[in-house]
Amino acid sequence: MRSYLVNTETGAAEDHMSWADEIRAIICDSEDIIDAFDAISSHPFVSFLCHLRSRYQVGCKIKEIKSRLDDLFRRRSGYINPGGDRSTSVDLHNRWIHGLLAASPWTHQGERIVGFEEDFDAVVGRLMNDSPELSVLSLVGMGGAGKTTLIKKVFNHSDVRRHFDTLAWVYVSRSFRLGNLVHQVAKGLMQIPSTEIDELSESQLQELLLRPLKEKRFLLVLDDVWDRRVWETIRLLLPVNGHGNRVIITTRNSEVAASVVGARSCTRVLRPLSHEESWELFHDKVFAVSEPCPGELIEVAERIVRKCHGLPLAVAIVGGMMLPKGRSQLEWNHVLNNIDSDLISNEIEVQGPLFLSYKDLPHPLKSCFLLCSIFPQDCNILRKKLIRLWIAEGLIKEGEGERVEDVAEKYLMELINRSMIQVSVISSSERVKACRIHHLLHQLSISISRAQNFSAVYEDQQAVTPSRAYRISLQKSSYDALQDRGWEKLRSLFVFGIYDSLRISERMLKNFRLLRVLDLENAYLVELPGEMGDLFHLRYFSVRGTRLKKLPVSLKNLRNLQTLDIRRNQLRKLSFEIKRLKNLRHLEMRQNEKSIKVPLGLSRMQYLQVVTGAQADSTFVHEVGKLTELNKLAIGDLRAEDAVVLCSSINNMARLLSLSIFSIDASTAIDLEKLNPSSLQKLHIAGCLERLPHWFSGISNLTKLRLGLSRLFADPFQVLQQLPNLVFLQLYEAYQGKVLRCANRGFIKLKILILTDLKELEEWEVENGAMRCIQEMWIMSCSKLKTVPLGLEFLATLQQLRLVSMPEHFVKRLNPSEGGEDFIRVKHIPSIQVN
Predict the structure, then answer these.
(1) What's the CA dihedral at 193, 196, 199, 200 to 10 degrees?
(2) Least confident span in 14-18, 236-240, 376-380, 490-494
(3) Number of domains, the chain
(4) Which end of the chain is more exposed for a tag (fewer CB within 10 A), N or C?
(5) Which of 269, 292, 307 is the last residue of a domain?
């Protein structure tokens, strides 16, 4: 059934969608039957007769499913014409959309471009430089970002047309055929009758192209490229003649740009328009050049423009919508209130390019993209959370020799490369930390999700009524309707922005028997019902940031649970048999102050990959050594006498990448000498060390390090500056010495340095050649430090200097108006903040 669904979803017509909807419903109903039977069969107290009865009921439902399938396939011809050429119709549909876009009101040849002036100059400069080599420029951006507009302006520029002997523009599209593409390139560059070219083979075309083009300088534009094979094929046709030939590729996929080989290449990513640029473009569409916006419309007009989020296509479309509205403030406010639905309903000019991007996604990525619809608009979505949700929802399947987490990471990068998801936060080690979905794509995902019953979003007190959607997201909406019947098929419930007291009742739980995901993060929740353990299918459960003081004992029955997130609550211990959660992968428990005591039996949980916030008592430090799949461990309240056993346990964890250790007593040294953490990438130790363990110099993979309360006597920089991949370093109450020195070629990759509460530090010297990549530096509460580091002027890459709670005499030395002696050392830094 899933294979039929994959094939059917590629169709463009409405009849294909009806067919797909019915298949999708049958798939979900089949999964519900299996889930319900699994729940009964696994219950230890269900009688033999109950098992027989449930088997009989499942058999009846399977027969019903089979009957529905038979009926659906009998009616297949009514949905899809078996003799139709789907690829041809899709190609025509795509070309029709592209033709409409090319003629849209913001691509007219005579118009000036808004917001792309810098890009325009850079592209023209790249095309017309003196380099004799073949050069490829890839322009990357999401659908509607203005790639074609910009390149058309460049292509038609008089200087560019004079510079090249021949120019050709080829629209590729996602449904291209290599043979047809070669013929199109030949037609564009050769300027001979099309009929003659159509009769030639690819080898003949290559020979025909290479001969005359050897003496010419040409510009070739390959517009809307979706597949790396395009360049791999076309480059074989192009001569290497030393005349400065140029190729421009526009694409939504950064992997296409990265795959360009066999020529000099560079990539340029189009940024969104600023608000000022968006306003300028909007004004040009709605008003005459010399006509100001009427005063009574300025506020509503600016709010409308902000709704477009810098997407040129959206700004132009909204501007076109406003033209017939005249100057009626009532009409403009009506547009403002309905702009989201208006943008999505304009299928030709907005949904066209965006929906095309969605349609091109591989089938598994479609569902991953649609799940983003459940998050509030403009929300920063944490990478780890999104990946865990995908896995819990069953959207990720293990690859050959790959864990589901690795496959999910690849899916995320694919969506980012296709500009369907945007990176919003990057960690200091340059990994994606959080992402977001563009406003228009978010609306599109909501629209598609609702149409497919994938999910439904209820916002701002919108009435919640039972629906066929398998997932619902409550965003500042009432949850009272969840008490009603009609939610029996619900798979996932997400709650955002509900700050009134939230009560999960037993009646509500009866509606949620098939629930796989329950995300109540930051809800006002003080207790959970004792029947929580009845949610047998639950795989992801988050009560992070609520006000819980205890968890129900029945949670031990959630044997399918993969993620349990109870961070930032008022819990002190787990009051249920956690060892029964055999499938748990992520146990997130870190509280605001204290760690959580974990019951006996943790060693049996062989799938655990993440444990945070656990109390490192004598039982725990022994048991944790059996968790060989752990990649992240964060523990608190470690006693000095348990440190050696802990080291032995950690040494069994070959996959461990992140380790945090918090000591229970800051005055007693903990012995970590026997630790062997060679694979660590992140390390945080808060506790007395007195000296750095010998293995510090060997953790070459370490990118992020925090040391606190360490009471080190020797300068830690002498060891730490040798770590080849360290990009983030924080020391707080870690060093009792008076002098720090950074040597030449020390900290070669360090980007962020934070020094806090180094009470005895008086001098700090930075040699020329140290910290060559430093971008951000914080100095806080170092009360005896006399001056900024000697040699700070050598740090040419430093962008931000933050000084917090530093003595007055220290700050005065930086102020040129007060004759500051140290101003010469910091004048090159773009941003200096003193608090």
Answers:
(1) -100
(2) 14-18
(3) 5
(4) C
(5) 269
